[in-house]
Description:
The complex is a heterodimer.
Chain A: H1 8-23, H2 36-60, H3 66-108, H4 116-132, H5 134-148, H6 150-158, H7 176-188, H8 210-236, H9 238-243, H10 247-252, E1 256-257, E2 261-262, H11 265-294, H12 304-317, H13 322-331, H14 333-369
Antiparallel strand pairs in A: 1-2
Chain B: H1 2-16, E1 28-39, E2 44-54, E3 61-70, H2 73-84, E4 87-89, E5 95-98, H3 107-116, E6 125-129, H4 135-139, H5 149-158, H6 160-163, H7 171-179, E7 186-195, E8 198-210, E9 213-218, H8 220-229, E10 237-244, E11 247-267, E12 270-287, H9 295-324, H10 331-338, H11 340-346, H12 350-355, E13 358-369
Parallel strand pairs in B: 1-4, 1-5, 5-6, 6-7, 12-13
Antiparallel strand pairs in B: 1-2, 2-3, 7-8, 8-9, 10-11, 11-12
Helix pairs in contact in B: 8-9, 10-11
Main location (chain A): membrane
Protein name (chain A): Spore germination protein KB
Transmembrane segments (chain A): 12-30, 36-57, 77-95, 115-133, 140-160, 187-205, 217-237, 266-288, 300-324, 336-354
Amino acid sequence: MSKEVISDIQAICLIILFISGGALALPTGAAAGSDLWLAILMALILAIPLYMVYARLLSLYPGKDLFDILEDIFGRFFGKALGLIFIWFTFHLGVLVLRDQGEFLITLSLPETPMIVPIILVTLLCIWIVKAGMETMGRWANLFVILDAPIPTIVILMLIPQMDLSNIQPVLYDGIRSFLKGTLEALVFPFGDVVVFLMIFFALKPRDSKKSIFIKGLLWGGLLIAGVSLAEILVLGEDLYLSTYYPNHNVAGKVSIGELLQRLEVIAVVATLTSFFLKVSVCLLAVSNGMSKIFGFKDYKILATPIALLMCNFSCFIFDSTIYKFRWLMETTTYYFLPYQIILPIIILIFAQIKKRNNGRSVKKENKSV
Amino acid sequence: MKKLYFIIIVITLFILSGCWNYSDVNKMRFVAGVAIDYDESKDKYIVTSEVVKLLEGGQRFGSALFQSRGETVFDAVRDTIMKNARKLYWGHTKVIILSKDVTGKRLVPILDYISRDGEFRDNVWILISDEDTANEIFENTFENRDEITSFHIDDTLKNEKNISTYHAIPAWRFIGTTYDKGASPTLPMVIVAEKDGIKVPKVRGQAIIKGSNLVGTLDETETKIYLWIINELEGGVLTVKTEVSDRPIEVTLELFANKTRIKPIKSGDEIVIKINIESDFGIGEISGEVNVIEKKAREVLKRDTEAEIKKQMENVIKKVQKEYKSDIFGFGIKIKDKMPEKWRQIEPYWDEVFKDLETEINVNVNIRGSALTLEPIKIED
């Protein structure tokens, strides 16, 4: 298998798009009410140490991914079992994002089209990009960041006349408890999802600083999300924000500058769909890679098609309606994803550190004895 | 292999070159506006939709009216399609006119339908008909149906800045305000008026909605003062009676710029709402020969204008507090912003508190210029 390599800029772009995929369209940190922009910023700050953990894990094992690391630390059997758990998490995440993407299109513009149609189309594209490989994906991300990051920023700027400061005042009126709950929600979605990159960043150049890749991606992506959420809450106010499924789309339609610049929903939809697509592709790549490592295939690319078709299938019957899905997402995801994103990586890092230190000692001992 | 690709490309040409459920423009009808009434005796909604129609000759647009009934608004809308035999397209709908008796508990389902339905743009204008029913607005205006009433109303509402006798808010903002405990929304009212022998719709005054009930109305002058208080006034004229060197005259002032700041302050245990108004005027018209432009007379004019504005504002606020008991000025929101702790205590009794809320109005008027002339026109006998 030829070794794939992506540059650090491409890796940063991947992280930016991955964070904004989904979170650009869907509300996040909703429990914090009108303080959710603050909750997202708080989550961004909390995500910095978390990303340090991810970066540290990768830099302890340069050129390896999570599955190699797990096998090295916990041995063949337990390592593979833990790997399977992570594969399940990533698979489920990919399914959810795929479903979000399909529902987003169906709800907003194509109510009479069956949901499977957009889902199948995106699935085919995902198979294509995963088969083309990690390098192609990196270049794609590099190109599309130029499209996806400025569009929401421009929309925010054009919404300034519609903003009302009293929508976010008084800050922390609902109390610190709901604020913290919102922070946790925002930490899990979208920031925690980046744990998926542990499974595909075998492609980083060994000498690149993992820390700076993760932190730069986090800052750009996180600030974009926080800015968009702040604009949404300033325009819509807490109650309308929470009552719409897709606040960003709603808000983009409110842009009205002169008679000329109106109804920018369509541009917002383009930005949202492309970042959705990237998020699904990254998940698919991670699952394929993990499966191929666990079952000892030489190349992950042959697994892309069956796994993508499984995801496609699963995303269609996982929820029976949008209402049910949103309830599930609001009530369950935070606690369901938390262990995979925060608790397990920290435990793995602790074990990895202990193992490295022991290795170091034994190496020293051997040196001495020689 | 090449042949296979060729066949695939040809096939995709046929399957993908078209939209899934495309409907031709000539198969659809564009709804310009909707009027919603309620038939008490039969317990049914009456929905009148004004549909854009190409007039004979194909050069100009006119309109046609369709009426339908249903248990719910959605039901009635579907009924329109049956009668119309063509698909109705709601994406270009500009106005929704509600009759007075639709407010109350029937307002919520209508708002829900507007914000839930994908085809409605949620920045349609909502108006209240000041006539007996809402469909009169459509039926009695432009009787030849060679103009589109809804577009006429839409144009009027967009020119709010120059007229200031009503305050238009799009549906989504109205729905947002209904959520708020500390504020009651208002809606503009529309009547049928006559202009040059043609009946046209005229928008004037505001209807006050409280908890989805219509509790009262503001007339044109009161609406202007209301706009002044909520800092939405951007132009307009004000006539002031003043007395310069013992001769009473009327001066019409044109408003150039206005800034209103509402600030709640604590005085003892009570809350006092402080309204600071900073207005720039120009002298627009002087009825009389008195020179009000020279400095001393200008001082008098300034003082009288300030007193006049203050008096009118106090009257409107009193009326809203005592008669309608609904916080259309958003004082509650201001209190929540500035004194969250106090608001937590008074929120449950806000209606009672608002009724007896003290206000303190400070007006500062600047007379900036006198348009093109320096002195009044003198008529020498």
